[in-house]
Design goal:
Blueprint lengths: L14 H8 L3 E4 L4 E4 L15 E2 L6 E5 L13 E2 L9 H11 L24
Parallel strand pairs: 2-5
Antiparallel strand pairs: 1-2, 1-4, 3-4
């Protein structure tokens, strides 16, 4: 007799599926050597591959971890820094806006493909 199993109820690669699979997750900043538990109530159904994280203290890139950093060899000096209602660091927010929300959209060139300062031969 074979056992019947139910289908996996979560969308693949979402934070909800990762939490169900791996349990507690962490964010780690290698610049200021801090880590915090990952709390994502608003992002549970978001694809984890599309999100990046930054440190709310120094603005550096934060790494997504499945194992608590102090349990890893060589990372015992990391400090737990659980911040309630963490806000984006101003530098990280400015960098994000510069990359993903440009103030002036790219415009199409009206030169017809010619290089600037080059004369167009009208005989062709």
């Amino acid at each position: 007799m074979s056992a019947v199993t139910a289908l996996w109820p979560y969308e693949p690669f979402t934070f909800r599926a990762l939490r169900r699979t791996f349990g507690a997750m962490w964010l780690r900043c290698d610049v200021c050597r801090r880590y915090a538990p990952l709390r994502l109530p608003a992002l549970l159904d978001v694809d984890s591959r599309t999100k990046t994280f930054s440190c709310s203290r120094c603005g550096g890139q934060a790494s997504f971890c499945l194992i608590e950093p102090i349990k890893e060899p060589g990372m015992q000096d990391y400090n737990l820094d659980p911040i309630e209602n963490a806000r984006h660091h101003p530098d990280a927010a400015r960098n994000h806006r510069a990359l993903y929300c440009p103030s002036e959209p790219a415009r199409a060139s009206a030169t017809g493909g010619e290089l600037p300062g080059r004369k167009i031969d009208r005989r062709r």
